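Q: Here's a chain of 785 amino acids. Please give me its 3D structure as tokens.
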Amino acid sequence: HTFFEMLGNFSFGDYFKKEAIQYAWELATKEYGLDETRVYVSVFREDDEAYAIWRDVVGVPDERIKRMDEADNFWAAGPTGPCGPCSELYWDFHPERGAEGIDLEDDSRFIEFYNLVFMEMNRDASGKTAPLKNKNIDTGMGLERMAQILQGKPNNYETDLIRPIIDKAASMAGISYDDADDATKLKLKVIGDHTRAVAYLVSDGVLPSNVGRGYIVRRLLRRVVRCGRLLGVKAPEGAEAFTPAIAEVVVGMSGDCDLEVANRSQKIYEEFEREELRFAKTLGRGEEILADMIAAAKAKDAKAPELSGDDAFTLYDTYGFPLDITTDVASEEGVAVDVEGFEAAMEVARTLSRDARVTVDVTAGDLLATIADELGEPTRFTGYGSLVEQSVTVRAIVRAGERVDSAAAGETVEVVLDATPFYAEGGGQVGDEGEIQLANGVVLCVRDCRKAAGGRVYVHVCEVTGDPRGSVSIGDAVTAAVDAESRRRAMANHTATHLLQSALKRVVGEDVSQAGSLVNTERLRFDFNAPAGPTPAQLEEIEALVNGWIGDATDLVAQEMPIAEAKSRGATAAFGEKYGEIVRVVDVPGVSMELCGGTHVANTAEIGGFKVVSEAGIAAGVRRIEAVSGPGVVELLNRREGVVRELAGALRVPPEEIAGRVTSLMDDLRAAQKEAEALRGELAAAKSVALAADAMVAPNGSRVLVARLDGVDPAALKSAAESLIARLAGEAGEAGAAVVLGSGSADGKVGLVAIFDDEVQSAGGLKAGAVLGAAAKACGGGGGG
């Protein structure tokens, strides 16, 4: 599955192994009514405690309890961090086979449906484990697997969670799932599962793109399209795409579990259609490339033509062309495919992907987590109401990853205070800068502030300055002061970002959703999901709206409330952000209401002004706006005014006449370029007259010319080739003609043109594109046309 629902229960320092096992057994056998004799249990090979609980407390007989190794029954967060043994529950589909010699990994007989993780240890960087102070329970039960068991289906796809989607696709292809062969059933299962996954992802604001999570959506949806095309799924009458009709089934089934899917149904259908049509064009281009590759393979070895593994992988990786389609098309043309070479290229790509992954050492944050545990009370943040906090206490100092009691001038350290006005980086807003001042003259210049240990402590990244003989020590009373100007700029940019999102929703559409943001002292950046960018007129309207709201001088209201209440009031939440039960809501009455822990102005008038600097696409379906506010607007206008003055001076015209003067100069330049191009074409044609005499005469009477014409640009080279083909074809008559011209330049660039008339193509089965492609590869480039 690409999308599944996980049921589970958790305990953090409360109930543990015995209770978790009893709860799992009760849920499975009493609430769900599973036959106890068909439930098998696995435990970690060394977990005698769990084995005894299953046997002596629950009453599962020894023959239905199996000890298994780490690969199956030991869970860890990663190379380091919390870990512990697991116990899993399996359902037996074939009890008639008996209990002797069973293998729980036999998928034809057993399915794991419930996993109990007993997190009781912590593993450090050296691999050593130690007991956790508070032992935890983490369990998971697959909804789809439980549905399969309760409904008596042979697989998850045939349950009522996915089968209706499959049946819709089958009916649109004019086939029956029940009567289909295994290969056809597999394609229908792909359509059912992937359509369900993509519909929910799009409803959450994840749109097809070439990066991150958007790339996953794109690959899933394109696989649906590919399988549908292979099955012959037809679009409804009057429609160009078939996937939206299948997605309608997903939306119809979502009402009882996620109302947002139905609310965003139109957006879901639009994205399905847009991506399907886009991929159809890609497949068409892939088919053209494949045809050229097949022609080149035949030209290279007419007796045993073979498509290389690298070519097959290029089709797969660049054009999304699956290997099975490549092999099918090639087979029809009598061309083999180097599948082993394809797999080798695929493995190279996988290796590069694995090498790019980052292994996270959880122990890197263990020191700060330990500090947080020892301190008990979390850092108290006072920065919403004040930029200066006096008489706060230094509670911890970390230097170069080690805890120290003091630090001297010139050292860079991380400092934890009992209270702080410094905002810690989060929600797209950078951490505050400022100073931590001591009575002895030592000053800690705060370069950044961030949260650690799950947000329990605020860590100030500081450089110790001041008296070289002074130092800062644990227990010192200090004054923490945020740089007021930096905070003011950050607040203005952050509030402006909220206004920008509201303006986008009003001008571009309500389905605009945030895809990322950055708020610092210099500018703001806002990424959002949208199939197309705002037009210039819409950007002007967005700017006008934001500046209008700034001019309205509206007081902001920030308050904490339960997250359910915030959502009921209509507060906007950012996709991918994690929120607690109590959230902070920042409200610009009548304009914007968002869940946000950042710092903001008290009144919109404090922003001062707003100006969009740029708008561009950063990925398919994702746009980015960069803007400035407040003093940043004045600074931007001053820089642009300087550029205008320089241009006016260079062009010797008043500023208001710059545009007209530049247009006039561009017209003159284009006219001169056209004249030069015409002269180069005439020169190339004149040179080509002499080349005609060098044409060879083939045995069938065809005229063939392969020549070099240096110092000629591609357009002129094409013009010369067209002139030559016309002349030679006239001389050859029905035998036809072929011309291949090459041109080299002093900077090493190569130009190639090939033209074969219809007679040559039909007689020899040759295509100019295939020949040109092979020649271009030898020159280190590509070819086509």
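Q: Can you summarize the key feature?
A: Residues 346 and 352 are 10 Å apart (CA to CA).
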